[in-house]
Design brief:
With 263 residues, this protein is an alpha+beta fold. 32% of the residues lie in helices and 20% in strands. The chain is built from 10 helices and 7 strands. Strands 1, 2, 3, 4, 5, 6 and 7 form a 7-stranded antiparallel β-sheet that branches. A hairpin with an 8-residue loop joins strand 6 and strand 7.
Length: 263
């Protein structure tokens, strides 16, 4: 449908259509050759491991919860706010992000007032990634991103000590040592995001899964599956032939559209 609209606006059918893989345009069964929900869950868990900074979103409480010491507008009750924060994937629950919460921070004030929490992540290809076949390979619109919905809970001190959560966290964020629990600057504490729902956008819908990932799939991914998975741009990543045909077709159409609009 998208191609038909483009072609109608152009007033002609680009010659690239003759070269574009017809089974893609005709919804050939091969067009369903996209990652499964399970494979998408593995990709998401790999991104969770590779990344360590994400956007933490919460909702402001009603005005009656506003502290007299807090200088914020009086009409923010129910409004969402998203702020970046550090996190890590640590044992014993690597599927639930570990966060060094600062009590005075807006996100954790809102969470303490009852707000649910969403952590949003996106995949960043390695800086030394190989060149793409076309402009879509590394387009942010075509790269995976997802959101983890849940709530914040404290990590028991016994778990912090047993699983060396402080070491796990500071290996990824050495600067965060300055605000570790017990510091002289701010009150802080170890927290985890208890994940209840996962929403995934793997990329363009003709080549990636888009939708909810069941929590059982999210929790069931093994560390071995995470370590063996590869995303576009990573060493060892392999595209299937169907993906290559789609990208080649998009490249041909983009060239044809450019030719028509610049004549």
């Amino acid at each position: 449908m998208l191609y038909a609209i483009i072609f109608l606006l152009l007033g002609t059918v680009p010659a690239a259509v003759a070269q574009f893989p017809q089974h893609v345009l005709l919804n050939h069964p091969n067009a369903l050759n996209i990652p499964t929900v399970k494979e998408s869950a593995i990709q998401a868990r790999r991104i969770l491991n590779l990344s360590s900074i994400a956007t933490l979103s919460t909702v402001f409480p009603g005005d009656q919860s506003t502290s007299l010491l807090e200088n914020r507008p009086h009409d923010l009750g129910g409004d969402p706010i998203g702020l970046i924060d550090y996190y890590t994937s640590c044992d014993p629950t690597p599927h639930e992000p570990t966060i060094l919460a600062i009590s005075i921070a807006t996100s954790f004030r809102n969470a303490r007032a009852g707000s649910n929490v969403t952590l949003s992540l996106r995949y960043h290809p390695p800086h030394d990634h190989p060149p793409g076949n076309d402009i879509y390979t590394y387009s942010p619109a075509n790269l995976p991103r997802f959101s983890l919905l849940g709530y914040i809970e404290p990590v028991p001190i016994s778990e912090v000590r047993r699983y060396h959560i402080d070491r796990c966290f500071f290996e990824r964020h050495p600067d965060a040592v300055a605000w570790k629990p017990g510091n002289a600057i701010h009150q802080s504490w170890w927290a985890r995001l208890v994940v209840e729902q996962v929403y995934w956008i793997g990329g363009f819908g003709d080549r990636a899964y888009i939708g909810w990932i069941p929590i059982e799939e999210w929790r069931g991914v093994t560390q071995g599956e995470v370590e063996n998975a590869r995303l576009v741009g990573e060493q060892g990543y392999e595209k299937d032939s169907f993906q290559e045909q789609i990208e080649e077709g998009f490249s041909l159409i983009a060239e044809e559209i450019t030719h028509h609009t610049t004549r």
